[in-house]
Specification:
The complex is a heterodimer of chains A (about 200) and B (about 150). By secondary structure, chain A is α/β, with parallel strands linked by helices. In chain A, strand 3, helix 3 and strand 4 form a beta-alpha-beta unit. In chain A, helix 2 packs parallel to helix 3 and helix 6 runs antiparallel to helix 7. By secondary structure, chain B is mostly helical. Chain B is about 80% helix and about 0% strand. In chain B, helix 3 runs antiparallel to helix 4, helix 3 packs antiparallel against helix 6 and helix 5 runs antiparallel to helix 6. The radius of gyration of chain B is 18 Å and the shape is elongated. Classes of the chains: A alpha/beta (about 200), B mainly alpha (about 150). Chains A and B meet through helix 1 of A and helix 2, helix 3 and helix 4 of B.
Amino acid sequence: MAVDAETQFHVLAVDDSLLDRKLIERLLKTSSFQVTTVDSGSKALEVLGLREDQPPEHNEIEVNLVITDYCMPGMTGYDLLMKIKESSSLRDIPVVIMSSENVPSRINRCLEGGAEEFFLKPVQLSDLKRLRPHILKGKSKEQEKENTTIISTSTSTTSSSGSNKRKAIAIDEDLAPNKRTRLRFSSSSSSLTLV
Amino acid sequence: MTPTEELNSLMNWMFSEGLLDQQFQQLQMLQDASNPDFVSEVITLFCKDSEIILAELTKLLRDQPVVDFQKVDAYVHQLKGSSSSVGANNVKLACIHFRQFYEENNKEGCFSSLNAMEREYFRLKDKLGTMLQLEQRIQAYESSKHN
């Protein structure tokens, strides 16, 4: 799967503040993302095809990344993160959390819970540059999953060599250099350096 | 002074007085030909939100025999968020001061920062109004030139 620089990825943005939704939408569109905004965690789960107390449905809309506010009434950003990571169909979707408050214990909790990044509000355009690598990583995880399924179910040699090629591409993507500027709060660093 | 000179002078003043900060410049950078009204739309939203919050704060402070500071703090938290998102620096600072006083249980400090919040908001609203008017005048002049 060749992913060129212009591939439009779809980001789901969750924030209960209309003002902040407007802002994050503009920031994401300026960064060439397709955007859907919702005002709550429960609406986000609906968009993702996961309804409460029901088996997961096949996603109607493909979402490549979820960016959510932490402080929301009802379901917090952390609660939403947990629901996504607990779902077998959604757990590979990268999740980024935003907050106006710099609380180290909160940040650590989110990163340990599986969030890829924690952005302090107000979110900047430069912060959004860090999203694409996470999306690509998420996609290669999905690809590996598919390949594993194909290898275990395939009987002919042609399909397994085809899937090996796909696996090779997935590994190459994983090795692609990630341009990191200043490390803020990222789960992919070996030590949590809080700059 | 031409409208452009007036606008530049006003903006410089607003930044130096702390009415606005760098975040406002970020908003201006997000405005372009495809989204020409982005800044004014954001300002409109901010003003609407802020006035609702300030009205609620007034109710909580004046209409109740005992002030529910927890509820007040929740509203101030919201205002702090939106003022930070928009670059409304002095309003944001007043919110930060309120929360510090609230944590220290300093009632007088709480009341004085609530007053500052309101004062700074209306001061900003006034100047933003002038800014938008000047921009409209400049815009109108620019489009008349092309006709």
